[in-house]
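Side project, low priority. Logging it here so it doesn't get lost.
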Amino acid sequence: MHKVGLLTLLLGLGLLLCVDAEGGATELGSNRSHSVAWGARIFRDTHLERVIITQKSKWLRVVTRDYHFQQKQLTRRITQIVITDQVGDGKGGYASLVEGGPQNTFAKIHFKSQRGLSFSFIVDIYGI
């Protein structure tokens, strides 16, 4: 008896989570943005840097770009890196963390476009 009630409750909560704020149903997996976040914000961390990384397209080519975050004077430990894709229709590029990142004082991020397309990302780095 309790298993059926619990199953019904979980199913009802799952349906509520699939309804957006305007009351319409959303398609699961419809977000085509390539935004990504590594790590987690914690109490008293600060915004260390914000940079916009863009690369123009080249005909039938994949364009790449690397971004290196190095601290010069006061080195802080990175808590979170947030990459926001500015091309939200799924035609933007991809970001991957190559070196460093959260729990380190440096980071190297590699950006890659889709073939024949450009990319634009906002990189936010937080640390303590």
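Brief comment: The helical segments are 2-17.
Revisit when time allows.
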